[in-house]
Each structure stands twice: as C-alpha cells, then as structure tokens.
Amino acid sequence: MIDMAEIIDGKKVAGDIKEEIAQRVEQLKGEGHRPPHIAIILIGDDGASHTYVRGKITACKAVGFEYSLMQFSQSISESKLKHHIQSLNEDDDIDGFIVQLPLPDHISVEHITEQISPEKDVDGFTNQNFGSIVSQNPLILPATPYGVMELMHRYRIEMKGKHCVVVGASRLAGAPLSLMLMKQGMATVTLCHEFTQDLASHTKNAEILLVAVGRPNLVTADMIKEGAVVIDIGTTRVKDDTKRSGFRIAGDVDFENAKKKASYITPVPGGIGPMTIASLLLNTLKAYENRHIQ
Ligand code: GUN
Asked: Percent of the chain having pLDDT more than 90?
C-alpha cells in the first residue's frame, strides 16, 4: 500500500539542466566561440502564447543564449511567414528557431512546420525529426516528449520492459512520446486516444501512465493502478477568480486523489512544463554544436 507518491519536481530538474547548459555556454565563450542564438516567431496576441514565449525568453537569458523575438500580426499571410522562415534557415547567425503555436486559422501548421530546416527545428516538430526518433542517431528530438524522458531518467524510473500507457495521440506530445518510450525506453507501449472505449480498462494496467490530452480531471484515481508512475502532460487554462490573472493551469489528472495511489507523480504546474523549456534549450545547444563545434 502506497502512503503518498513522491512528487516529481520538474522545476528543480529543469533548473539543474539550465545550470549545466549555462556552464557549457561559459566554457564555449572561454574558448572564443559566440553563444548559441535562438529566434522565436510569435504571431498575433494569444495570451497563453505570449506567456509561454516570455518563459522561453527568460530561460534563454538565464543560460546565456542570444535570442531574437520576431512578432507578426494575426493577419500575416502564409507566404510571408514562409519567407521569414526561409530567411532564418539561411541565416548563419541563427542556430535554431521556433514558431509558437497555435497559428491563425488561415495558416497551415503543416506547411509552416515543413518549411523549417530540420537542423534548426529546435522544437523537433518537422516530419524528419519526428521520424528520426526511431533512428539510431536522432537529430533533434521533439521537445515535450524529450522532457518527459529526461525527467524519468533523472528520477531513475526504469522504463525497460515496463507497460507504459499513453493517453492522447497528438502530433506534438502523445504520438512522439509513445515512439520514444518504445525505442529509447524499451518499454511495452499502449497508445490510447481520449476517445478510446473504456479508457479505464487500459489505464488500470499501466505501470507508467502518461496523459497528454488537455482535459482536466480526465484521469481519476480509480483509473490508476496502485503504485503506478503518473506523468501529467496536460496544460489547460481554467477560470480561477482567486488568482490575479483570473485563471490557473490544470493538468489532466486528479492530482490530489491520484497522489494517494501513485508511487511517483508530476504536478501541474511545475512538472513537465519547465522540462519542455529545458528540452528546447538542450536542442538549441545541440543544433549549435552540430553547426559550429567539431
Ligand atoms: N504551443 C504550445 N506548446 C508549444 C511548444 O512547445 N512549441 C511551440 N512552438 N508552440 C507551442
């Protein structure tokens, strides 16, 4: 009988990773190299996107990266945006860049993502980087699942041969995560949708349960096996009048009850969120080193 789960501190681990990156940047500068340089494209005035981008810029500053923020109005055309992306692909001073999502409805995410050179795709969103998950030597790993894997590694959570159940099959989280658990983690993987019939019959079998749907309280304590590791990747803004901002960020798991059943559990916020940003920094450092060092 588990008394209470160990709370996985993603904020602390992300801080450790940032410290390691900052030291590497200092070392590079000491050897006469310029620091890594990331560009961030931000379109329109979606509040959540602005908040995420602010967090990314703060993290870049903390590790000594250079950054360029490129802001465009909601009405920018797809062809203009592609043109800016092509300029970044060709700019030798830029090591990596991201296009913050969501995009306006008139712009195709797929078209824009595929315009990004895979070597500079530090979100790991392109089809080439998605596919490289199953290669011996991945180029750049998708940032959110990379953060999940790194967090579990640093907590010494054994994945090999374990039954992992992923809930949510999105292009940015669930789908690449299931491949990474299978390939890098050597786990047995069940991939569920939020629409999977009798979802609980699958989640109850999970030794490691990973949820990335974006629906608060989708996973309740009765859906969790006693002693399971629970990783919550959901981030949904929910109205909360007790907060100055008027909202709070909620995960997909009923944390308060789930923590009485799990062996390890990630909180929201402070779990996977900070790790996604840490992965973005790791990917940018890797893109830089691939281009400049050795
Ligand atoms: N929108 C929500 N999460 C992300 C992310 O990780 N990267 C980008 N580019 N956009 C996002």
From this structure: 96
Taking only the tens place, the pLDDT of each residue in 222-275 is: 999 999 999 999 999 999 999 999 999 999 999 999 999 999 999 999 999 999
Instruction: Look at strands 247-250 and 236-239 and give their pairing.
Output: antiparallel
Q: What is the pTM of this model?
A: 0.97
CA 71 to ligand 1 centroid distance, Å = 15
Ligand 1 centroid from CA 107, angstroms: 16
Mean pLDDT for all residues in the chain: 97
**Closest CA relative to residue 44, chosen from 99, 120, 121:** 99
State residue 131 phi and psi, 5-degree precision: -65, -30
Q: How many CB atoms lie within 10 A of CB 264?
A: 20
Closest Cα to residue 252, out of 197, 192, 292, 207?
192
Question: Which residue's CA lies nearest to atom 2 of ligand 1?
Answer: 101
Single-letter amino acid, residue 52 = Y
Annotation says 197 is catalytic: no
Is there a catalytic annotation at residue 71? no
Q: Which residue has the tokens 């281009």?
A: 291
In this structure, what token pair is assigned to residue 112?
């824009």
- Contacts of residue 2, Cβ cutoff 8 Å, sequence gap at least 6: 226, 227, 260, 261, 262, 263
What is the set of domains in the chain, with CATH numbers?
Answer: 31-118 (3.40.50.10860), 142-274 (3.40.50.720)
